[in-house]
Structures are given as structure tokens and as C-alpha cells.
Amino acid sequence: MTYANVFGVPHAYRLTAPANPPSATLVFIHGWLLSQCYWQPVIEPLAADFQCLSYDLRGFGNSNQALAARSYPASHAPHQSPHPYSLEAYAADLGELLSQLDIKSPVWLVGHSLGGSIALWAAKLWPQQIQGVICVNAGGGVYLPDEFAKFRQAGQQIVRWRPPWLRHVPLVNWAFSRMMVQQPLALAWGQQRVADLLAAQAAAATGVLLESTTEAEVHRLPQVVANLQQPAYFIAGANDTVMEVKYVNHLASFHPLFEEVEGNVKVLPDCGHMAMVEQPEALTQAIQALVTVAPVSSPVHDSALK
User: Fold this and answer.
1) Which domain holds residue 86?
2) What is the C-alpha separation between 120 and 141, in angstroms, rounded?
3) Distance set, CA 19 to CA 24, 132, 206, 294 (Å)
4) How sure is the predictor about 154, in pLDDT bands with cuts at 50, 70 and 90?
């Protein structure tokens, strides 16, 4: 595992070799209580045509040390220093990581769930370098007070109740391989989800949960999408009960591409909330088509979602 010091916090990352001939760099951003490893089934086939960067978000996976050491220079903030666990702050982490790695090629961000929201924010902050965004199992923009209150409460309980012995409970990997998916995953993925749940730092897991689900933040995300100059695509799971297709369509509708003939939403059949491990081949093909066909300078002409 390779690490980069991002604002004082070690961030674990993997970076594949540049493609030959040179092409875009794909940056993969994982979701809440997960890690970068879930992208490997997609990165492996894509690495032949694109340089691929995956990393663990601050406080998750192997980027779960020295969180208190974070020091965010005021000069990096567009207006003022954001809350350390806000979507904007995680987008700032990504911008610093790209700067440290000296990524010169055009960048496309591929974000899953929470990672999709972070990707949209990063595209807002760095429109010159980030050429496009692909959100996977990510949507939103609708604030439902009762549902959000229950979601926040349940999420906080999950973070609080994570005994180390959980990984040794019989059949726990079996149970986790069936959570939020249409068809059961391999048991190894269930075990990985347990490991990532236990690895997440409570401050980060709770902080980003609460900061990303305030009424103000939920309503701000559609504004971010509406003001993007880059292409923004959304890939949904037909059977996703965490981020239903209607909420994916809602957020996607704020981008100009939504009104185009081909639109900017693709729905994967027989897929729940973990498209990259449920339908890796279909997701790989969709990403490759979008990045290959979409023009660099215009967000409104694309036929990759046929």
C-alpha cells in the first residue's frame, strides 16, 4: 500500500501506470463505511486503456490514522475553511491528492454513493482539471425530514456498535454479503465489508454522515450539479433500495445532459447498491463508453448511454 500525506493525514492509494497511448485518468471514490478495494473488479479491465487512481477517504479503509493531525490551509479554501467532514472538505482532500501525485492528464471522477457527492463537489472546485463525473448508485437532492432523521439515527447506531469480535461471529460474512444487493456477493466481499466497517474511524464516519445529510447540504447538491460545466452521468441500480432510481433521476435532472436525447442516466438491471461488485462488467463497459465518447469541452453531446 502506498501513502500520500494529505493535509497532514496519511491517505492510502493505488495508482496504475499511464495508458499507452496517453488518455484520461480515472479516479475512483468509494462510499460510506467502505474502501477503495471494491473498485478493483472495475479497475483491472479499465487499466489497459486508462490510468486509474483509487484511494481510501480520510477516516476509512487504510486512511484511518492521525485524523487529528489534519491542517487545512486557509489559502486552499475558495471562501472559508469548510467543516472537516463536509463534502467540500473531502473534495479538497482529493484536489490535494491529485496535486501531490502530479496528475497531468484530464481527470474523470467515478464516485459510489457518498463518493458520488464528493466527486460532484470536486468537479465544482476544479473545473479545469476534472473533465467529467460518473456517479454510481448516487443521487438525492430531496430532503425528507422523517426519513433523514431515521437514517442519521440508524447510521450513528451502526458506528457506535462495532465490537472488534464482530468479524469472528459465525456467518457474519454471509449476512454482509447480502446487504444492500440484489444477488448475494461472494463471501469474501462480505468479510471485506465487515473489515471496512470496523476500520472506519468513528469521528469520520459520524461526521460525514451528519454533515452530508443536513437539510442545507441536501438542497445544495442539486445547485452543484446545475452549475457544473463538465459532463455528469449517473448509473443506477434497478433494484437499489438505498438510492432508488427516482432519486438518481432527480439529481441528474439538474444537469443539462438530462434533457438531451440520450439523457445522462443509465440503469443497470439486476443490480442493488453495490454496482461495482454486483455488475462489474456492465459498469466497466458503461464507464469506458462514457469516457471514450464524451467530448472534453462540451457537456451536451453524447451517445454513450444508448
Assistant:
1) 2-142+218-293
2) 13
3) 8, 18, 38, 18
4) very high
Q: Is residue 128 part of a domain?
A: yes
Cα–Cα distances (Å) from 97 to 73, 115, 167, 231, 277, in that order, read 14, 15, 32, 22, 25
Q: Measured in whole angstroms, how far is the alpha carbon of residue 160 from the centre of its chain?
A: 23
Domains in the chain: how many in total? 1
Q: Let me know if residue 262 belongs to a domain.
A: yes
- Which residue type does 66 have? A
Pairing between β-strand 9-15 and β-strand 2-6 as defined by DSSP bridges: antiparallel
**Structure confidence at residue 22 as a pLDDT band (50, 70, 90):** confident
For 76, list phi and psi in degrees, rounded to 5. -85, -15
For residue 247, the domain's CATH number is 3.40.50.1820
pLDDT for the residue numbered 165: 94
Q: At a CB cut-off of 8 Å and minimum separation 6, what does 99 contact?
A: none
β-sheet bridge partners, residue 2:
13
Residue 133 pairs in a beta bridge with 109, 232
Q: Is 194 in a helix, a strand, or coil?
A: helix
Q: What is the structure's pLDDT at 104?
A: 84
Which residue, 173, 180, 178, is CA-closest to 196? Answer: 173
What are the Cα distances from residue 137, in Å, to 70, 194, 284?
Answer: 29, 20, 14
Beta strands in the chain (DSSP E): 2-6, 9-15, 25-29, 51-55, 107-112, 130-136, 232-237, 265-268
Average pLDDT over residues 231-255: 98
What's the whole-number average pLDDT of the chain?
92
Mean pLDDT of 195-213: 97
